[in-house]
Every structure is written in structure tokens, then in C-alpha cells.
Design goal:
The chain has 206 residues and is mainly α. The protein has helices at 22-28, 31-39, 43-65, 68-84, 96-130, 138-143, 147-151, 155-165, 171-178, 182-205. It has two domains: 15-113, Rna Polymerase Sigma Factor, Chain: A, CATH 1.10.1740; 116-205, Winged helix-like DNA-binding domain superfamily/Winged helix DNA-binding domain (Arc Repressor Mutant, subunit A). It is rod-shaped, with a radius of gyration of 28 Å.
């Protein structure tokens, strides 16, 4: 007996409920199916998106930032942003790869801005020390990792810099505390700051 009943929408799963196997996506290279699964929240589709385009994202990041750790960080941020913002992707306006490239460019720009901000903060801290400014913003001191740099200094310069950084004493106060001529304290601080600047510049270039 033939059933001539007209199928109802309830006879088939909704598009959002369909989960396309990753193996099929890889075999068929069907980007529209991949996009549908990705936007539906299928984590296997996210894995496929990452597998296809992570190298592209990482390559762009590495060329711009020239730092492995920063490029890896940008790559992770890009795919997290893509996953969280997948509902905003419009396949009629751009291909998925082009959308990812746009996110990558913005994320790289953010990384450069963070670098520039950190560099400004470090230099501001160094200049504040050179000017005997004792009321330093705490966030600047926290941004500058000085422990290793100070440990490399000889004993007297190390004592002077610790009093300046951590106790926030002026040049005059340091001279009185250590029983040293004021000119000697200033000379040690200038030489130590020069070493610190060099170290920070090397760190920025790595």
C-alpha cells in the first residue's frame, strides 16, 4: 500500500540538528556544509576549520610579529573569536577563509598595540626613575619584570636599584642610606638603566 501522505516538517530533522561527519567534510571539501555545521555549533566543524586555516593564520601572524609565542597566541585568539562570533558570519558576503583573514588582521593589530603599550609603560617607568619620581603607578612597576635584570648587577648597583625600584627612594635618600656620594648613586643608576634599556630592547625584538 502506497502512502501518499504529504511529508510534514516534523518528518525531518532541522538543519541546526544535522551533524555532518568531519570525514565527509574533508573528503567533499564542501564549504557550505562546513559553514552550516560550524554556525550550528558543531565542535567537529571547528576542528576542521582549524585544520584547514590555522597554518594561514599562523603564517600571517608570524610574518607580521616575527615572534613564535606571539604568533601562536594570535592564532589561538583568532579561532576563539571566530567560534564565539560564528553567528555573525554571513557566507553570502564573504568566504569563511576571508572572514578568518579579517579577524586575523584585527588580532595582529591588537598584538602590535599591546607591544607598543608595554614598551611605552616600560620606558615611562625607566624615565620616572631617572627623574626621581617616587609616586610611580603600580601597574607600570608590575609590567616590568626587573628581578632577573637586577640579579645580574654587581652588589652596589643592585642595592641602589632595589632601593629605587622597591623602596621608591630618591637619589638623595639612597645616598644617605648607603653612605655613598650622591654623584656615585646617580652614575650607578644611569649605567644600570642603560643596561635595562638594552635588555628590554632585546626582549622586544625576540
Amino acid at each position: 500500500m502506497n502512502d501518499n501522505r504529504t511529508p510534514s516538517p516534523g518528518d525531518h530533522p532541522s538543519p541546526a540538528a544535522v551533524r555532518i561527519p568531519v570525514s565527509e567534510l574533508l573528503q567533499n571539501h564542501d564549504e557550505s556544509s562546513l559553514v552550516a555545521s560550524f554556525q550550528a555549533g558543531d565542535e567537529r566543524a571547528l576542528a576542521t576549520v582549524y585544520e584547514r586555516w590555522a597554518r594561514l593564520v599562523y603564517g600571517m601572524s608570524m610574518r607580521s610579529l616575527a615572534n613564535v609565542a606571539d604568533a601562536e597566541d594570535v592564532t589561538q585568539r583568532v579561532f576563539v573569536a571566530a567560534w564565539l562570533g560564528r553567528a555573525s558570519f554571513d557566507p553570502e558576503r564573504a568566504r569563511l577563509s576571508a572572514w578568518l583573514v579579517g579577524i586575523t588582521k584585527n588580532t595582529i593589530a591588537d598584538a602590535h598595540e599591546r607591544r607598543a603599550r608595554d614598551r611605552r609603560d616600560r620606558e615611562a617607568l625607566i624615565q620616572s626613575l631617572d627623574r626621581e619620581v617616587t609616586d610611580w603607578p603600580d601597574d607600570l612597576a608590575e609590567r616590568l619584570v626587573v628581578a632577573d635584570a637586577l640579579a645580574d648587577l654587581p652588589e652596589i648597583p643592585r642595592q641602589i636599584m632595589r632601593l629605587a625600584f622597591y623602596d621608591r627612594l630618591t637619589h638623595t635618600q639612597i645616598a644617605e642610606r648607603l653612605g655613598l656620594p650622591l654623584g656615585t648613586v646617580k652614575s650607578h643608576i644611569r649605567r644600570s638603566l642603560d643596561r635595562l634599556r638594552t635588555r628590554l630592547e632585546v626582549s622586544d625584538d625576540e
